[in-house]
Structures are given as C-alpha cells and as structure tokens.
C-alpha cells in the first residue's frame, strides 16, 4: 500500500484521501436515525447517548430535545427529563403543551406534586385537544381536575 502512495503525486494523494474520508463518512450512520432505531428497540440508554451525540454534532431541533427528554424519563433520570422538558417548553412554543405534559409526568416521579399540577394545567390550556384531554385526566387522578375546571374557561 505504501508503494502505491509513493507513486502518486501530492494532488492525487489528496483526492484519494478525500475519497477515503467520504467513504468512511458515508458508512457512519446518522446519530438521529440510529437513536430512533435504538428507542424503538427499547434501548433507551443507547438512544439517549445517540440523541445527545446528534445534539453535540450541532442538531438543535425541538424534536431532538423532546426525544432526549423522553429517553431521560425512560432511563429514570427524572430530574434531567424535567429540566429538558422545561427548556423545550420555553424555547419552542409549538412544543409547549407536549413538553409541559411530559414535564408534569417527570415532576410526579420527583414527588413535586404542586409543580406537576401547574405543568398539567399549562398543557391542558394548549391548543392540542389530545394533550388537553391527557392533562385533564392527569389532573383528575391528582384529585384537582374538578377544582381547576371551575377556574379555567
């Protein structure tokens, strides 16, 4: 192999190295796709690491932040999940209700009931009817749904 490289001039060597780098890059899977596959297989810790790799590589989307939060929740890191969902709700209005609902779930695991109620109340006030129904159900299970219904139009 070394003899082949010695025969090539510098310009050809550069092209060969670029081609080799391109092949190596093409063989590396997309971290987001690999993370999604791991998540679907139930390997939440691996999925979390891969989603975090995608973020470290520069991906910054609400879907990525949401998936990181869900993985954190699934592996039992409720404090990190709560922080991730809180940040998601504040940064991306279109994900606010979804983030607040999931934040409420994490807060319940952390035994922070009053904050969970506030998060579920925020999720219920959003435009997504499905999330509003889930949040209302969570509030009912906490025994405060009827009380809040009287206060919220």
Model description:
This protein is mainly alpha-helical and 153 residues long. It contains ten helices and no strands. It has helices spanning 2-7, 10-27, 31-40, 44-56, 62-74, 78-91, 96-109, 113-124, 129-141, 145-151. Helix 4 (44-56) packs antiparallel against helix 5, helix 5 (62-74) runs antiparallel to helix 6 and helix 8 packs antiparallel against helix 9 (129-141). The longest helix is centred in the first third of the chain and has 18 residues, at 10-27. The chain is elongated, with a radius of gyration of 23 Å. It starts with a helix and ends with a helix.
List the secondary-structure elements in sequence, H or E: HHHHHHHHHH
Fraction of residues in helices? over 70%
Provide the gyration radius in Å: 23 Å
Number of helices: 10
Spans of at least 5 consecutive residues with low confidence: 1-27, 149-153
* Strand segment count: 0
Strand residue content: under 5%
Could you write a compact summary of the structure shown?
The chain has helices spanning 2-7, 10-27, 31-40, 44-56, 62-74, 78-91, 96-109, 113-124, 129-141, 145-151. Mean pLDDT is 82; it is low at 1-27 and 149-153.
List key phrases describing it.
mainly alpha, disordered N terminus, 153 residues
Write the layout of secondary structure elements.
Layout lengths: L1 H6 L2 H18 L3 H10 L3 H13 L5 H13 L3 H14 L4 H14 L3 H12 L4 H13 L3 H7 L2
């Amino acid at each position: 192999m070394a003899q082949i490289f010695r025969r090539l001039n510098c310009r050809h060597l550069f092209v060969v190295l670029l081609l080799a780098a391109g092949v190596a890059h093409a063989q590396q899977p997309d971290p987001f796709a690999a993370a999604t596959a791991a998540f679907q297989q139930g390997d939440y810790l691996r999925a979390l690491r891969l989603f975090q790799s995608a973020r470290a590589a520069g991906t910054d989307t609400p879907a990525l932040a949401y998936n990181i939060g869900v993985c954190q929740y699934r592996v039992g890191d409720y404090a990190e999940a709560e922080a991730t969902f809180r940040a998601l709700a504040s940064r991306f209005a279109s994900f606010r209700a979804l983030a607040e609902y999931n934040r409420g779930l994490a807060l319940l695991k952390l035994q922070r009931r009053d904050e969970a109620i506030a998060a579920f109340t925020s999720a219920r006030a959003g435009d997504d009817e499905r999330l509003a129904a889930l949040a209302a159900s969570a509030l009912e299970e906490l025994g405060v749904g009827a009380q809040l219904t009287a206060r919220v139009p």
